[in-house]
Amino acid sequence: MATKAGGTGRFTQDEKRRDSDHVSFLKHRSFRWLWIALLLSGAAIAGYLMIDQQPRPNGGTWYGYTLGTIGVLLILWLSLLGVRKRRINPGAWSLKAWTSAHVYLGLSLIVIGTLHTGFQIGWNVHTLAYVLMLLVIATGIYGVAVYATLPASLSANRKEMTRAQMLDALTAIDRQLESAAQPLGREDADLVIAAMNQDPFSLGVIGRLTGNFYGSCRTHYALTELEDDEPGMERVYPLLEKRLAQLDQIRGQLRIRALLEVWLFVHIPLTIALIAALTAHVISVFYYW
Amino acid sequence: MGETFKVAIIGSGPAGLSAAARAAALGLSHVLLEKTDHLSDTIYKYQKGKHVMATPSNLVLRSDIDFDAGKREAILGTWDEQIAGHKVNVKYMAEAKAIRGTGDPIPGSMQQIVTRARDGTKSVKEVQRHAPPYAIELTNGEVVMAENVILAIGTQGNPNRMRCPGADLPHVQYQLDDPTEYVDEHIVIVGTGDAGIENARGLAEDPAQRNTVSILNRGTEFPTAKAANVSALMADHEAGKLMVRTESETKAIEPGFITLTTRDGEIRILCDRIIARIGSAPPRAFVEECGIEFTSEDRGAFPRLSPVFESTAPGIFVIGALAGYPLIKHCMNQGHDVIEFINGNTDLKPADEPIIAAKFAELPGQRSTEEWLEFLRSNVSILGGMNPLQMREFMLDSEAKFFRAGEVIFERNAPGSSLFGIASGSVAVEVNPADPSITIPIESGSIFGEVGLISGRRRGATIRAAEDTIVVEISRLAALKLQSQVPSAKAAIQRISIERQLLQMFGSGLTREDVAPLVEAAQVQEKRAGEVVVTEGADDKDVFIIRRGSMIVEKQIGERPVFLSYLPAGSYFGEMAVIDGSARTATVKAAIKAEVIRLPGEGFLDLLEKNPALRERAMKDMAGRRATNAFIEGQKDSFSSVVDMYSQTAQFLVDNGIGEATDVLLIDEKLCIGCDNCEKACADSHDGLSRLDREAGKTYAHLHVPTSCRHCEHPHCMADCPPNAIKRGPDGEVFIDETCIGCGNCQRNCPYGVIRMDAKPPKKPSLLQWMLFGKGPGPGEASYSWRKKAAEKEGAAKAKQAIKCDMCSGIDGGPACVRACPTGAAIRVSPDKFLTFTKLTEDVE
């Protein structure tokens, strides 16, 4: 065990990490990628203004081609984030740095892409690619916004429980409900059984995103129908209330997770569509050269 | 009374079986006593189909019966067959109760048995030893006579018995094999550890059995049970399946009824059966009663043995786990050897001879193994108190190394908890990292590296060989064993460590003579987690150095205590009150179990007076600490809520084990989007199994401590690892190597629940195959069902082994969990860097 400090050269690296690289992807390395993106955009704008493009600013001038090439390379590289995040080894890179670059360079595409069009918009495949790109960026902006604002509420809603524990808690309540509801009459018992048999996950897309499912929630319905002062209700009613509270937590979790993820279901298909449109755009441009 | 056997072997585990087989093969008159009705009860009780490992693999097996890694059933089957084949004389249902010498009293041979009562008082009983033959009294009243006795009873011990009136009634039992056996009964379970809870739940599980089950808890908490078990039990209680009686103790037992004392007085309830699961007593008391002395009063101590395993009672031999060898192969070899010794074969070399010989192969000078062992023993002062058997055992966990003049032995900041003894030559300590030419010599015979051993922290200085030097590197485990076996070694290590710590305290410039009076007056004190060492406002005047563990400093500001700072091992405190004579300005308490060196204030002042440079340095340190404290107090006036947040967050982290961590994963839940990419990356970096559970664990103010290894300074998991497979690696990571036998001790010992037992799953199809063709389970840990199916397809199921975080050792770029976090929520920190005001209050978004 007589080892050298950082035998694998990791000690210094580890110390730096332990010194706490505790900043978000937006602030990563004092906004390094924001500055790079601003620089890139600034340079693109300056070039657009200063270079005399003949006959007029257009994707087909040499400057237009330059911007287009930068744009296309950026788009392809940005889309590789999906592979990167699933392939952690090998390589000493950090996904946070990639996310940071993805966000800021992605935003810089608004400037680069727009300048590349030379503000010539029409009903054609070229504009289709441009519009798709803007849509991808717009969904991305939504993603950044929810990433920055929602995690705290996700954490607060969790109350130190794991998803499995939330479901276990619900099962435990149901077990108690089942025995407590034994003395109830047919009608009341049916309400309780209906509540217990409802799948907590069958909420529908709208319900999941808005968190409003009291319309179809049978536990909620049972609570409105039953009276807490009826005989036999001393245990059942509070248990149903507990069940509703537990359901609310689970649904809260589902809702926030859905809000955090839903944009990806648009962002990624749009990206694929964008790459397809881009391919068509590039091929057609060279075909009619 | 029947014949007197040449040898009686008590216990039919691997050690006892091997001894009995050897005795049978040699034709010695023998008897093997087994308390149950089957051989090898400990392995018999393993769960069905458990894979038993055969480590260490480099140790040859020397036994008349076979053993190889394999399923429990196969191993037991082989043993049953071979024991029958050897015509071993086995006596089942024979539990030894006492062993007495029946010969003359041995003059001057007294055994002192110390018993400690709960209130801390000791009583000493003296027992006169008698010469063999021995009479072994069994619990059924029978007596077996033997000239020699081999104790191979392991360390499991016997279940603790109930002690109230009626405890000996037949319906009080200590085990429950099959909960479905009992129907229509009123059953009371005593004891709320995991065993008791599992029994109670098992009995109440099926309402069709119509059992009325209650479980008694002396208090209101369940400190010894797993959290999952407790919550399941409470759920069963709420569901009315069983009854948890808190603050209840048994007062008396009678047929059909039990009387309990509860908070509200005594109650008498129906009771047809009592199942007591109240732990088990180590067999030490029984062993001592036989006239066998232990090496120390330490709970982990082993019997004192000669090189041929003979105890202090002549003719009684101790082998196997009880002698300190928990591995099956060791046990079996000893069983073989001890019979050879008893049979007069004195030339037998131990089976581990080649392993030890290999350790000396690289050293210059032609010496035999015995000569080398004696060379180390006589030259390294702390090893002087050991006998040859102990030296051999010691050497198995240690290494002898040769360094040429100028070679580095270890470097500053390298992790390492081993201790070095200098057998010949000398070394130089580079005390000043800025100037390697300033060194302090350590002479032959002395030790170094003790700070790493005691504090569990990184090496404080680079050490080079000053001339050609032979050192013995004593692993942490061997060093701990040495200290518990040889009290003089413990005292020597302690003294040297205090002296060195004092010399290091204020940098160089002090000599041994300067600190000698302080070393003399210093006391080492143990502190429990949370124990207050210095109280704010008090006027005691001692100075403390933290030897192991860590402390937190807090100050009462307004109504509440405010966390000021975190002090890791190696820091000192309490000097302010001594230097300026004021009252204590803050409270210092142990963050975790800790040890401090207490130095009397006057001695410390004397030292300062004689050394103006030291005084200056102390004043400078003090000014720095004052400034920090004043800063936080100042903040408190203007930003009260920020300081409260800081203070409470720091306290929360300390409560969750960060105080003993060296590198811990935290998740900032203001940033965590719950994508679980950290877990997926972990699984993909390590054989397809995740070593962290992001969601589990505590959270305070959006700072989450997930279930993941803290790489403790003194890892709890290392405490009881039979193959010694848990080690600290080159980057400070605590890892488990491939010699793991899957016993699960580390999992039970880890207070943070970060170790899982699982079989390595088969390889998944590549990422590309998954992305393009949907082959395989995709990134991250595959579901249990996929793993099971894939493993079945591959054929032979792999054994379960302990799995834990290794800090992505050997992976370029460092911990995958941190690298794979897209938002920066996952961070890995060390407490001394993170538990500061700036870090805990910084704005990360």
Layout of secondary structure:
The complex is a heterodimer of chains A (289) and B (845).
Chain A: H1 11-18, H2 28-50, H3 62-79, H4 81-84, H5 95-117, H6 125-149, H7 151-158, H8 163-180, H9 186-197, H10 204-210, H11 218-225, H12 233-261, H13 264-287
Chain B: E1 4-10, H1 14-26, E2 30-33, H2 41-44, E3 51-52, E4 70-71, H3 72-85, E5 90-91, E6 96-101, E7 105-116, E8 122-130, E9 134-138, E10 143-151, E11 158-159, E12 172-173, E13 186-190, H4 194-204, E14 212-216, H5 227-238, E15 243-245, E16 249-254, E17 257-262, E18 265-270, E19 273-276, E20 280-281, H6 284-289, E21 316-318, H7 328-342, H8 353-360, H9 369-379, H10 388-396, E22 398-403, E23 408-410, E24 419-424, E25 427-430, E26 439-442, E27 447-448, H11 450-455, E28 462-465, E29 469-474, H12 476-485, H13 487-505, H14 512-521, E30 523-527, E31 532-534, E32 542-548, E33 551-557, E34 560-567, E35 572-573, H15 575-580, E36 587-590, E37 594-600, H16 601-610, H17 612-638, H18 640-655, E38 664-668, H19 677-685, E39 693-700, E40 703-707, E41 726-728, E42 734-736, H20 745-749, E43 756-758, H21 767-773, H22 784-794, E44 801-803, H23 816-819, E45 826-829, H24 831-834, H25 837-841
Parallel strand pairs in B: 1-2, 1-10, 2-5, 10-21, 12-19, 13-14, 13-19, 14-15
Antiparallel strand pairs in B: 3-4, 6-9, 7-8, 9-10, 11-20, 16-17, 17-18, 22-29, 23-28, 24-27, 24-29, 25-26, 25-28, 30-37, 31-36, 32-35, 32-37, 33-34, 33-36, 38-40, 38-45, 39-40, 41-42, 43-44
